[in-house]
């Protein structure tokens, strides 16, 4: 699993002084493992440390910063005699002169981790991935020109890719994967293997922890083609989604710029039971992105699946080695391979008719009813992607251990849930098939073999192109100051709503001089823009006479809504667009925010008898700024509501319509329906909430998450953790809550108990509800360290006590 902030703490500080040295070392156990943790040996006068850091751009940039602390070391291999210089390993050095960087060696020596990390497109042999790289404007211009001239110094060479996907239904590996992974005579050059539903346990869902990662990793490694030697490049997992990347060992030196990303699209747009994981890398001079996704389930939820796909595409980002360049998205790659349990079903078609088509192997007739085909034809999803002809029977749903269709009470209809698609040039699919011999799951694994044309560099032509660019740049340099023309400098966002993205665009048109631009911080401010705004991209590079479109994205969420509701903050900002070696341009951003119950305090909403949109800004501000512990005589003329009317509408809707709803609070709703629900609560234009039960349930969770003071006040957080196993003390803590908060707590607990009475239908249990609501009703104070697993479990246990007992309200 990846290291996170909650896993580490500061124990000691090692100063970078005389005698300090940092050197990457390669333990024997790391041989032939590309992308394994980076082992660094740190030496100083009074310390000898060996640390392991996760492979990737963050570690690389951290080590670059260590190197920058003593810049005199750069470019020198023998600095031990100078007391002012940092002693580093030879592999950290690089040559900053304008010489054509030689390509990586093609010798067939044994592959080690250190050698693999040394391989990087257009980087010297000796400069490993940890080396300090020069990312000045001149280097950026050279790299950009090299990209434009790429066709002049590269040629295409085909490499064989194996792509596989398998939903394992929470099972451990019980059978060999050889029939799936090693069916062909010729061993592939690259393996991309994805799993879904690796672990269905609550621990995996809520705490992203599972022993099955290692089990399936070993099962895959043991089943790779026996006629080749492979190196593991990278492994990435989010809850039950696992993606593994291997290459032939003799290709390892041509793999570089390896990065991973994860996006959860489950409930509240974050839970990782649904979503995607991805690995991107450069193979020779071709950028490749592999995505493994598990989209929303159930036949009727095809719109939610479409939304999941779009969310993964928009939210998945990969750091670049050049910190001056914006992150890469999925679509910014030469080759995209998308695999997974996409969950699209067959409709409308009766079960018996489906099975008749399958028995007759009339797969193309059956394919006409496939949801994914229909959505792709309508360009609603996977636009620009291609899927091969399906010549195998549906891969879902089977009885585990055999090839019989589902005989359970639900009797799920067959479907091609498990798919492989691609996007890019020079891609030829050689096979697309399922593997019926594997019976471990209710899904069958699917594989595809591709021949992919990869851009390989001709060393001599590359050097020639490089030298031409440098000569041209020498003539151009210092010719003039860069300047640009902006298509627009003033922006107004009208009627901004809670969690509803608005985007305005403008174009930067460059003049005759290459320029690097960046939005920079204003004086005494930590960021270049307010928290509710982002510029995409926020920095970049422009060649002469080129232009770039910038998107200004305005999005109000839980962290900014309260101050906008109260009027303490306005939608107003000034952006400064800075040109390297040029002048600054100022952009004005303004807008009007429509206040919402989302982000409003419980107490404020209890004093609002009319919709928040009907109230004056002054009244909202006055109620929002009321102190939490107020005396009863402040509003003698009007008694507050027991609970917010907005909360009552959502809970009442679920009580009447969703008490027996399967997967309630676990399956996300539609964003469009959430927006309708939000508007209904804020305006009271309708007496009935629109949208599915799942959308209303998610709106309730988002409402609780948006409260600036949680249901159980911040001041009582530690008390609750201390008495998480003592119901009597826990009731005493709840009794200390302000009346409106106590009423909301008791109301929600009563509703959750009602759901548990219908657990036979909705399949909810105490653990699920306590885990979901424990993190919403009982949240740590803003300055509190991020809760670890133990703390999260205590919050869950605190809520569990109240769900298991039907006693009197505190």
How would you characterize this protein structure?
- The protein contains 24 helices and 26 strands.
- The strands form 6 sheets. Strands 7-8-6-5-17-16 form a 6-stranded mixed β-sheet. The chain has a 5-stranded mixed β-sheet with strand order 9-10-11-14-15, covered by helices on one side. Strands 19-26-25-21-23 form a 5-stranded mixed β-sheet, with helices on one face.
- It is an alpha+beta fold.
- Mean pLDDT is 85; it is low at 1-5, 29-35, 71-99 and 102-135.
- It comes from Mauremys mutica.
- This is phosphoinositide 5-phosphatase.
Topology:
Elements: E1 21-25, E2 38-44, E3 47-53, H1 57-68, E4 87-88, H2 113-118, H3 137-148, H4 150-153, E5 154-167, H5 178-181, E6 190-196, H6 202-207, H7 212-221, E7 230-238, E8 241-248, E9 255-264, E10 275-283, E11 286-294, H8 302-315, E12 317-318, E13 328-329, E14 335-341, H9 351-359, H10 363-367, H11 371-377, E15 418-424, E16 427-434, E17 446-457, H12 459-476, E18 484-486, E19 490-496, E20 502-510, E21 515-520, E22 533-536, E23 539-542, E24 547-554, H13 558-566, E25 571-579, E26 584-593, H14 602-606, H15 617-624, H16 645-657, H17 671-683, H18 693-706, H19 717-722, H20 727-735, H21 739-757, H22 759-762, H23 766-777, H24 789-804
Parallel strand pairs: 1-4, 5-6, 11-14, 19-26
Antiparallel strand pairs: 1-2, 2-3, 5-17, 6-8, 7-8, 9-10, 10-11, 12-13, 14-15, 16-17, 18-20, 20-24, 21-23, 21-25, 22-24, 25-26
Helix pairs in contact: 3-12, 16-18, 17-18, 21-24, 23-24
Protein name: phosphoinositide 5-phosphatase
Pfam family, one: OCRL-like_ASH
Family: Belongs to the inositol 1,4,5-trisphosphate 5-phosphatase type II family.
């Amino acid at each position: 699993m990846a290291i996170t902030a909650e896993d580490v703490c500061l124990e000691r500080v090692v100063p970078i002084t005389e005698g300090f040295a940092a050197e990457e070392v390669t333990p024997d156990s790391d041989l032939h493992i590309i992308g394994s943790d980076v082992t660094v040996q740190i030496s100083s006068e009074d310390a000898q440390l060996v640390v392991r850091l996760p492979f990737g751009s963050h570690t690389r940039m951290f080590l670059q910063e260590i190197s920058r602390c003593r810049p005199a070391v750069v470019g020198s291999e023998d600095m031990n005699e100078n007391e002012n210089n940092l002693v580093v390993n030879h592999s950290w050095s690089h040559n900053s002169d304008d010489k054509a960087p030689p390509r990586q060696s093609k010798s067939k020596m044994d592959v080690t981790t250190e050698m693999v990390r040394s391989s990087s497109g257009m980087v010297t042999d000796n400069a490993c991935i940890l080396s300090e790289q020069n990312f000045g404007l001149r280097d950026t211009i050279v790299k950009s020109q090299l990209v434009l001239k790429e066709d002049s110094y590269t040629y295409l060479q085909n490499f064989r890719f194996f792509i596989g996907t398998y939903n394992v239904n929470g099972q451990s590996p019980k059978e060999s994967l050889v029939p799936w992974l090693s069916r062909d005579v010729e061993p592939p050059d690259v393996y991309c293997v994805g799993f879904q539903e690796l672990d269905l346990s609550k621990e995996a869902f809520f705490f992203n922890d599972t022993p099955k990662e290692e089990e399936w990793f070993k099962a895959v490694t043991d089943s790779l083609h026996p006629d080749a030697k492979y190196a593991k490049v990278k492994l990435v997992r989010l809850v039950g989604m696992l993606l593994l990347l291997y290459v032939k060992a003799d290709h390892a030196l041509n793999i570089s710029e390896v990065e991973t990303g994860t996006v959860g699209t489950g409930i509240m747009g974050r839970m990782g039971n649904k979503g995607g994981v991805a690995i991107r890398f450069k193979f020779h001079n071709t950028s490749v992105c592999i995505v493994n996704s598990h989209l929303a389930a159930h036949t009727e939820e095809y719109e939610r699946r479409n939304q999941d796909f779009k969310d993964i595409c928009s939210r998945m980002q990969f750091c670049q080695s050049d910190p001056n360049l914006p992150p890469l998205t999925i679509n910014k790659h030469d080759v995209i391979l998308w695999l997974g349990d996409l969950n699209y079903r067959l409709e409308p078609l009766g079960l018996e008719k489906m099975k008749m088509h399958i028995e007759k192997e009339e797969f193309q007739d059956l394919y006409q009813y496939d949801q994914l085909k229909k959505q792709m034809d309508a360009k609603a999803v996977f636009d620009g992607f291609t899927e091969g002809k399906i010549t195998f029977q549906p891969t879902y749903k089977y009885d585990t251990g055999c090839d019989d269709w589902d005989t359970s009470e639900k009797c799920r209809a067959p479907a091609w849930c498990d798919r492989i698609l691609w996007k890019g040039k020079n891609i030829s699919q050689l096979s697309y098939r399922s593997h019926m011999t594997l019976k471990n799951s209710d899904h069958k694994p699917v594989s595809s073999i591709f021949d992919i044309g990869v851009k390989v560099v001709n060393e001599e032509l590359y050097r020639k192109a490089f030298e031409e660019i440098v000569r041209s740049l020498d003539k151009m340099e210092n010719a003039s100051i860069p300047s640009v023309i902006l298509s627009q400098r003033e922006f107004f966002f009208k009627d901004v709503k809670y969690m509803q993205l608005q985007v305005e665009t403008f174009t930067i048109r460059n003049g005759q001089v290459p320029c690097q631009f960046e939005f920079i911080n204003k004086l005494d401010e930590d960021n270049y823009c307010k928290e509710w705004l982002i510029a995409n991209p926020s920095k970049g590079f422009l060649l002469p006479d080129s232009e770039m479109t910038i998107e200004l994205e305005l999005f109000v969420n839980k962290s900014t809504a309260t101050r906008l509701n109260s009027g303490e903050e306005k939608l107003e900002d000034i952006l400064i667009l800075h040109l390297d070696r040029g002048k600054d341009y100022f952009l004005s951003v303004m807008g009007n925010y429509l206040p919402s119950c989302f982000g409003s305090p419980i107490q404020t909403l209890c004093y609002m008898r009319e919709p928040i949109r009907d109230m004056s800004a002054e009244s909202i501000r006055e109620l929002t700024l009321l102190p939490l512990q107020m005396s009863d005589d402040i509003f003698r003329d009007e008694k507050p509501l027991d609970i917010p009317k907005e909360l009552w509408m959502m809970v009442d809707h679920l009580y009447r319509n969703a008490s027996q709803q399967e997967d309630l609070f676990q399956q996300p709703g539609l964003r469009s329906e959430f927006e309708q629900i939000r508007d209904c609560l804020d305006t009271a234009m309708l007496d009935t909430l629109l949208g599915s039960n799942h959308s209303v349930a998610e709106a309730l969770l988002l409402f609780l998450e948006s409260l600036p003071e949680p249901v159980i006040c911040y001041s009582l957080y530690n008390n609750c953790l201390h008495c998480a196993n003592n119901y009597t003390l826990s009731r005493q803590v709840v009794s200390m809550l302000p009346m409106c908060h106590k009423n909301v707590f008791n109301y929600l607990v009563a509703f959750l108990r009602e759901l548990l009475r219908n657990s036979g239908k909705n399949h909810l249990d105490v653990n699920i509800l306590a885990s979901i609501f424990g993190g919403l009703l009982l949240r740590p104070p803003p300055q509190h360290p991020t809760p670890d697993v133990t703390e999260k479990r205590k919050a869950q246990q605190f809520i569990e006590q109240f769900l298991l007992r039907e006693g009197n309200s505190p």
